[in-house]
Structure formats: C-alpha cells, structure tokens
Amino acid sequence: MQWHKNFPVLIIDDEIEATNATGRALGHIVEHLQSREFKVLLASDYDDGRLVFNTRADLGCVIVDWDLCLEDDGCDTERPIELIDAIRARNYRLPIFLCTERLAVEEIPTRVLEQVTGYFWITEDTPDFIAGHIEQAAAEYVAHLLPPFFKELVQYAQQYKYAWHTPGHTGGVAFLKSPAGRNFFNFFGENTLRSDLSISVPELGSLLEHSEVVGQAERNAARAFGADQTYFVTNGTSTANKIVFHGRVTPGDVVLVDRNCHKSICHSLIMTRVIPVYLTPTRNSQGIIGPIAPEQFNRDSVAAALAANPLAAGKTPEDVAHVVITNSTYDGLCYHVAPLEQGLSGFVGGLHFDEAWYAYARFHPMYQGRFAMADNPEAGDCPLFATQSTHKLLAAFSQASMVHVKDRHLGDPASRVDPKRFNEAFMMHSSTSPQYSIIASLDVATAMMQHGGGRALIGDCIAEAVAFRRKLRQVQEEAVAAGGWFFSPWQPATVDGQDFAAVGAARLESDPACWLLEPGAAWHGFDSLAPGHAMLDPIKVTILCPGIAPDGTMDETGVPAALVSRFLESRGIVPEKTGPYCFLMLFSMGVTKGKSGTLLAELFQFQRHYQANTPLADLFEDLVEHHPERYGAMGLKDLADQMHAHYRQNRMSVIVRDVCDELPVPAMIPAEAYDHLVQGRVEEVPLGELEGRIAAAMVVPYPPGIPVIMPGERFGPETRTIVQYLGVCQEFDGAFPGFESENHGVLVRREDQGLRYYISCIR
Length: 763
Ligand SMILES: *Cc1c(COP(=O)(O)O)cnc(C)c1O
Known about the structure:
single chain, 5-stranded parallel sheet, Aspartate Aminotransferase, domain 1, Aspartate Aminotransferase, domain 2, Rossmann fold, globular
C-alpha cells in the first residue's frame, strides 16, 4: 500500500522561489517529491508553517529551514524552537527535518536536535537522496499511524474479496439492485459498505472473544485509559452499564445508586432484580443537579440509608454488592474520586462510575484525580469500573462505548473481576454481529488520545470554553454596569478573591483550583460540600438567563431559556439541553473558534429582538403557523413575560430545587413493579389521584433526563413536590403549545377540560 502518498509534505522555507543555489536545490527536492507522487505544501515563514500544521492533521512530513531565523533581522532561535515544540506537543512522531546550509550541527540547540528526525544540507545532499529519505520517513510514520483494528479493516476492505457470508449486502453490492438501495449506496459510499463486514472474517478477530486485532485494540485502549481490562461495546453505555451490573450482582443484592442516574441504570436494576438504595444529590434553584454530599460516602451513612429503606431490612453495609455513581454529572460536576473510594472501602463489592460524558478526563491534567481510572492504587480495595460513551465527547460513531475495569486484586478472590467470568455478562448483552465500523471508531478514538494527542485536543476545548466564558462574563458585567442585562456563564464568580474575568486565561486553562465548588460560595447554590469534593468542568458551559437571583428568588421579569434555545435552534445553533432558566452548551472537540463567536453574536441578536419585542411571526414562523390564535399577535417579550409569570406564580425555582429533597418510599423493588407492568396489572392515573399509588415505570423529566420516581415507589407525602412539578409542567404545556415539556413515563392526553398528565401505576 502506498498510503503515505496521501499525506502531504510541508516545506517551511522562504527561498523556494529564489534564483540562488538554495532556491534551485529546493526546487529540485520539490520536483523529486512530486515525481514520487507526494503532494507538497509550501509555507514561507514559521507562523505560516504553524498555521498549516494546525489545520492539516494529514501531514506526512515537515521540513523546516533553520536558516530562516538567521535572515530575519532580530529573529532569534526561539522562533523555530517554538514551532517545533508546538508540532511535538500535538504529534510526537511526525517526521520533522531541519535543513540548513550555513550552520554546523553544534550550533543548533540540543533541545531542537532532540526533537527532530534528522537534518539535510540542502546544497550538498542530492535532491534525490533527500526526497528518498523523506519518503522513507513518511512511509514509516504512516505505517504506524493507524491503530491495530482499523488498519486491518482497511487492508481487508481493499482486497476486494468475493464474500459468501453475511451481511447479505456483501460489500454494498446488493444495494445496487434497486433505486432506493442505489441511493443508499451513493449516500454512504463504497468504503462504508465494503467495511461493513460480519463476524465471519477471521483476520479481524472476534469481539466476543477479544481475539486477534479486536483484542489488540482493546488492550491498547486499556493502556491508554488506565484500565486493567477494556471491553469495546457497540450498543452504547446503556448496554455497558447492563454488562457491568450483570457481571457483578445477583437478585436480592443491595446496590447503592446515585439518584442522579441515567435510565439505563434503572433498567439494570430491573434486569438484575436487586434492591436499590439511593445516594441523593442536591439541586439548586436553577434545577441544576449538584454532587452527592461527601458524608454520604461512608459506612455509617450507608448503614443509615439501609435502615431507612423498608426493602433493605436486616441488610448491612457489607451486603452492598455494587455502587454506581454518575461522574461527571450532566451539568459537568466531577468528583475527587479517592476520598469516595476510601469512604466506601472495606465493605462494598465494587465501585462503578458512569462516565458516559467523561471519556476524555484521563487525557488532560485539569481532571487529575477526578475519574475512575485515575492512578491512585492505594485509595480503595474493591474493583473499579468505568463506563464511557466514547461517541459522546470523543470522536467515534454513535453507540461506540467502553467498559474499563481496574481490578485491584485485593480482598476476596471470588469478588475479583475474572475476565472469563465477566465476559459471560459481556456476551449476554452483545450482538453476535457487531458493527465493525463502530469497533474501528473506538480504535481510532483511542489513537487520537494517545501520545499527547488527547492533551492537545482537550486543551483546545478547554481554551475555547475559557475564552468564551471570560468574554461572556465581561459582556455581562459591562451590561449590568450600564443598567442592562445579559446572559451569564454559570461558574465561580471569583478566583482567590479576584474577579473571574480578570483571571488570566492561562491559569483558567490549567489550574483545577479555579473551578472548584467552594463550600458556601453563592454562585453554585449547593450546600453540603467539602473543599475539593467537586469541580466544574470548564468545557460544559451552562448559560444562565435572567429571571432567578442566585439565592433563588424570582425577579419581576425574566427570560425563560426555552425561548432562547428555540431562537438559537432557528439559527442553526443547538444547545445540549435546556432548563427553565439555563441551557447547556458543550465545548467538545468539534467546536471551532467561529462557532463560539457565532453563539455570542446570536445571544446579542436575541437580546435585541427581546428588547424590540419583535413579532413572533418574524422569529418563529412554524410556531405561529401552527398556533396562529395563540401567538399571532405576540412579540418575543410578550411571550417571555407570560412564561415568566407562569413560572413565578408557581415558584418554579423552589420546586426545581426541592423536587428530589425527600426520597419516595419504595413499596417493592423495581423488578417487581416491572413484573406487574409486563403482566398488564397497571393503569394510567391522573396527577390528582396519585396519592398512595405505586409507580409502575420511572418518570423522567427532560432535561435533565434523571428519574424523579422509580418503579415500585409509592406516591405520598415525600413525592408532593414531584407531583407539583409535574402539575406545573402540565399547565405550562396547556398554556404554551409548541413548548411542551418532555417527560418520559408520562402519558399526555388532550381532554375537554384541557391537557392532562397520566402516570402508569400498579393496579
Ligand atoms: C447517555 C448516557 C448513558 C447512555 O449512553 P449511550 O451511549 O447513549 O447508550 C448512560 N449514562 C449516562 C450518565 C448518560 O448520560
């Protein structure tokens, strides 16, 4: 394969056009490279070269003219050193050659010699020799560029074999036989289909047995992510969580569960028929879910939680087979993991961090000590698990996910994670026909993070988020000083007593101390914290809208976030999630500078339309078309005022803060409630008649997508705020068609007296 020919050579030199000996020699080198089918890119100075490097991840080799810095008056050797450092920070293997004609090697700083692949004397070495040398270096580099599984898949797909096995489309050929199929083929392209192979290809190994290149790729990922064992999962973290549960617990076991959990955890509880006992996070008046208080992670408070749970009668902390915690939270709060482990050490059977949104944590020092696979072996004694949706914040196909296991080989041998036994659970939840392109994307996502790549890429995300946060804070402060308002980022107001906007970007990009949730700080609104317990991830930017003061009181006027999100969406900017007065933007690897500048510009636009009370018909054409009577005569500010009045009247900020303050009392385990559902012993009950009834399914308001009621829990005094919350949503949906709340587990019926919510309860 001549793959390296697809990787251009970058030459940074200003003499390429010159009619002197150097210029002629360079010209010959370019010709020789071109005759070897290389594409050559030229840059005339170091800055230009750096720009090309930053925008082209596909370079095969870089040639740097060292003498360039001698020609510029006043230019010192710092310039090329900076360039080479910058390249090496992102790519430690890309061949870099220095070319010089005036300097002897001993005059080139050691720091440079250490980092380059080699050097040429332009006018002495022959162009053919130099071009050949470059080709060899590029080929060698490219040959080791691809991670094991992807490389084998590419090779296999390029062999044009006749397949007599599944999938039945055989490399896409079957699609060509019908018009719809032909369009499908054209859209997805030949490589996608040719690499959609089935498990009958022995060269690629078996995911279920972790053999051959699949196994190699998983072991490589384990090294990169800091695990003892890594399992590639092709059905998302929803499945990864179920695998971990099925591999670790049996019916009747007690499992400690973060109440702020994803619904796949609830499904895991049902499938394994365990008794859940909850760890409860706090919420603030924006409805943002905070961390679980540090004092919940110890034997005494676990004993107290067990004693308070009627289903766990007679159980002791030693009966806790498994603990599952969401890290980081949806809103970007991440725990200092070691104290949690220490607190639970000595009695729990396993500790599982659902890191669906957090696969990048290991690759940047910002997150040091705040993820499951951190290197703190002395912290605890039970096996550790991390489940990560690689597709959510790294670059991989949807459903690409991983399970990482760290087995500390301590304690009871029966509770160790024996790969053979654990694999039974893996196979139970895996298709026998996994998607090979998903596996390849897991392999590539890993390679992207390795050897410093992750640090550079995540560093870019953090830098971009920090720049946006500083700018937004500055704009907001200026607006307030001028008697106006603007959106503001949810983040510490000060760092070491200094105003946030005044703290240098370099510090904010590198010092986790800037992002800690200090106990008692007003901006976050959570109580029960300890210093260092939780940190806000800078890349998850929650933007607050006016309407709720930090202490939770609701202002006279306000701008409900649903309107802002709708406006942004109409401009092609889609927030990750929207609460009553806040929305979340993720600064992931796909975000570029332009994107965050556009966001800021659109926020200004929104404000302008709000102040001008622009007719809704001009902004939300669809909405007005569907509900002309409701919105036809209204402006943006009119609607904001009405929505805010609705929330204010219903004291929304208090409700969202208190919604989960008290745990509902369980009447049966989730699995038993599910049995009733399967057997049809359920009925739909309107909100007003819920008292005393038992929920048959979980109720999950979106956002944040966290269950407020779990199956088997009884509606009673403890759930009044939850029912009240659902009541406010029900009325809101009736009053503001087109802005309906999303509540999974709630049946919505339009009746004569208006819109009504029903919840599925056990009969
Ligand atoms: C999204 C998510 C999951 C499920 O992940 P998928 O890859 O979408 O299946 C699990 N846990 C949490 C906390 C999530 O946010």
